Amino acid sequence: MPPEEKIMSYLVMARKWRPKNFEEMVGQEHIAKTLRNALTSGRIAHAFLFTGTRGVGKTTSARILAKALNCKNGPTPTPCEVCENCLAVNQGASMDVLEIDGASNNGVDNVRDLREQVKYAPMHGQYKIYIIDEVHMLSKAAFNALLKTLEEPPPHVIFIFATTEVSKVPHTILSRVQRFDFRRISETAIRDRLDFICGQEKIQFEVEALEAIARKADGSMRDALSLFDRVVAFTGESLTLESTRKVLGIPEDRLFGNLLKCLMTHDTAGCFKALEEVYHQGLEISEFLSGFGEYLRDVLFSRQEGITPAMLGVGEARFRDLRALALDLQDGDLLRYAKITSDLLGGLKTAPHPRLWVELGLSRMAALDRVVTLSQLMGQESLPPVHIQPAPPVQLPTAAVPIPEPIPEAKKKSPEQPSSPTPSPTVVGEGEEETVLKPQFSSHPSPAFKAGEGLGVRDLPAQWTALVDSYSIEKPLTASPLRYSHLRIKPEETPVVEIVFSGSGHHDLFLADGEGKRSLRNFLAASLEADSIFTLAFAFEEPVGGTSKSAPVTEGLNVLLQREPIVKTLLDMFEGRVLEGPV
Question: DSSP label at 153?
Fold first, then answer.
């Protein structure tokens, strides 16, 4: 064989494995079925518009449709592939199927020539078919010149338009054609097609390598076949993931995982090392950032319930790795990382110093604090309730904790109690007036009260300060309104423990939260003796004269800020301030 013929004998994969009939169309089954039904029923339109992204089969489908129309057995949904018309279409030599490049034939004169040609009958087939690729490139004058012919063409003429930008096609054209929207081809469909081709070409392969090619193709079958051709030319008859990454410049998942872990631990030095490894391997930084964005997307969706590896287009092993890494993150963390990564990728082309631009962006991500939910920030997560005795559900604001029998009248307080700045307790007996104990909270926390020391119900007023201090360890912000309250006992058949809030208005924060009231009830129940019974109630006490003075409120808030650092953090975060006067 002469050298020239040997050189020209090779046909690239994208041309060799181009679909030849509707059954071989990948990812466009909805279009293939519609066209087959139209051919079977004879409902053939005079003009079609195929639109979609690159490499999804628009021009290929136009050729298949042209072959089905002009086949000796046609119009038929299954061209014979052996008649002269079918062979001529496959070879691009049919005199009745004319392919026109809209980008280079976009003038009004070109359309005028086309209008003259459509008058002549086809030479061999039943139809004269005009396939105009990238039709959106036609000028406005050319579109206007085509309108009349397109609306009422001769019966032997069929137009098939293909475009990647249907938004640029005038509505006057769209209203005269049958439009078919081609979908992006899924990674699974591309991988399965490559698997089939490997079997036909006798090529050994790793599934991960085909998945990497499918992901890189980004929904385009033509791109996938071109990439596949490059890798096969490098590896020969053995297709591995390592060789695929090397040829296509695809970063390893290990690099993405290491970088994400460095961001999670605020390890700026580790981020620099990860970036240095990218440059050392000769990878394009834009390719790395794009891959890292996709990796963040996979980690984000792997956290969600109901997501399967097939939905993400990844294998089982990679899906397990993603989900294990996602357990230590919040959705907000991943979304912030993805936003900054997208900004870095967008500004990379115009950055005067690309490496510095990326390094500063990674440093900014590493410096970000981890995201917490509002309930975590306010300490509102409910803890397992402490059960003294089995109790039915309790209704608030009045809640009762039943016990087998009431408290004996001669019950005495525990001999030892934690020190507290409050007055000595007074037990209210029958016929006596209610005794109100108003603890004065100092700016320094009292010794933590130890739950479960066996207090009696009537001992609670004396220990209110210590109880609030102990409760604030578990629920810092929930306990804050309790510092503006005092406690009193109402001697009834079932003693009523009433928490009375002052006129500062902080009770609104507490009473509005049902979970806060339940957690306080469980805390008090755990602090009492096992045979204790009480009803928990809440009240509001108006200040003398019906108004509150601003000085005590402001002073109390300042004390609160000193004792609760998380409050100051909240004010800084939301740019808040302490108000003068009643809140």
Answer: -
Contacts of 427 (CB under 8 A, 6+ apart): 458, 489
Nearest to 47 by CA among 204, 211, 198, 176: 176
Residue 280 CA from chain centroid, whole number: 32
- Rounded to an integer, what is the distance from CA 78 to the centroid of its chain? 43
- Over 50: is that where the pLDDT of 450 sits? no
Provide the pLDDT confidence category of residue 465 given band limits of 50, 70 and 90: confident
DSSP result, 348-411: TTT-SSHHHHHHHHHHHHHHSPPP--HHHHTT-PPPPPPPSS------SSSEEE--SSPPPTT-
The 3 state secondary structure assigned to 39-83 is HHHCCCCCEEEEECCCCCCHHHHHHHHHHHHHCCCCCCCCCCCCC
Instruction: Cis check for the bond before 397: say yes or no (omega within 30 of 0).
Output: yes
Are the C-beta atoms of 540 and 397 separated by less than 8 Å? no
Residue 57: pLDDT band with limits 50, 70, 90: very high
CA 564 – CA 480 distance, rounded (Å): 8
3-class DSSP string for 229-295? HHHHHHHCCEECHHHHHHHHCCCCHHHHHHHHHHHHCCCHHHHHHHHHHHHHCCCCHHHHHHHHHHH
Q: Is the pTM of this model over 0.70?
A: no
User: How far is 379 from 99, CA to CA, in rounded Å?
Assistant: 69
Output the CA–CA distances (angstroms, integers) from residue 71 to 65, 78, 94, in the order listed.
10, 9, 12
Q: Which residue has the tokens 């397990």?
A: 320
Backbone angles phi, psi at 474, to 5 degrees: -85, -40
Contact yes or no for 278/288 (Cβ under 8 A): yes
**Paired tokens of 191:** 């991988």
- In degrees, rounded to 5, the angle at the alpha carbon of residue 156 between the alpha carbons of residues 155 and 160 is 100
Tell me the C-alpha distance between 88 and 93, whole Å.
5
- Looking at residue 384, what is its pLDDT? 40
Q: Which residues contact 287 (CB under 8 A, 6 or more apart)?
A: 249, 250, 251
Distance, CA of 380 to CA of 96 (rounded, Å): 75
User: 572: pLDDT confidence band, cut at 50, 70 and 90?
Assistant: low
When mean pLDDT is compared over 16-30, 404-418, 470-484, the highest value belongs to 16-30
Residue showing tokens 């005495």: 412
With tokens 């076949």, the residue in question is 225
- 95 φ/ψ angles, rounded to the nearest 5 degrees: -75, -15
CB-based contact 76:49 (threshold 8 Å): no
Q: Find, among 510, 539, 330, the residue nearest to 436 by Cα.
A: 539
Q: What does the block give as tokens for 162?
A: 């293909």
Q: Residue 144: which pLDDT band, with cuts at 50, 70 and 90?
A: very high
Domains in the chain, start-ordered, CATH in brackets?
A: 3-181 (3.40.50.300), 187-248 (1.10.8.60), 253-371 (1.20.272.10), 437-573 (3.30.300)
Residues 314-330: what's their mean pLDDT? 81
3-state SS class at 532? coil
Structure-block tokens of residue 411: 């019950």
136-145, 197-206, 516-525 — which is least confidently predicted?
516-525
In the chain, the percentage of residues whose pLDDT exceeds 90 is: 37
Give the pLDDT band of residue 182 (cuts 50, 70, 90): very high
